[in-house]
Amino acid sequence: xxxxxxxxxxxxxxxxxxxxxxxxxxxxxxxxxxxxxxxxxxxxxxxxxxxxxxxxxxxxxxxxxxxxxxxxxxxxxxxxxxxxxxxxxxxxxxxxxxxxxxxxxxxxxxxxxxxxxxxxxxxxxxxxxxxxxxxxxxxxxxxxxxxxxxxxxxxxx
Length: 157
Fold this sequence. Notes:
With 157 residues, the chain is of the alpha+beta class. Helices cover 23% and strands 20% of the residues.
């Protein structure tokens, strides 16, 4: 069964535990600036929204890479950057319509979410369930439930 990250901004408090867990998992330091997931803070509304690579089926980043540094992990389905192959040309960052691949100045390479090999640290660290790792076939279940509630999915009187 393929799984994917499911992000629910309604549950996000902006605690940044996901960013801390990600940076520690990938770099061994608690440094949100190095995280592959970001929590956007919309000051006007007070909303916090976690955001990272959605592992697109038709991955523009993968197809755009001229040196084939981005491959698909057969176990997780994640699009993974091979740092030894990446030449830092940034073509993948341009091709990604969501802006979830980032150039890392210190390494001269790019980074993106790789699902932590199937156990995403961000999902494990999230105290509110705003980030979960669920069956990829059911990532829309919350929207389905909300729509059903609007249509009268309440107990009858």
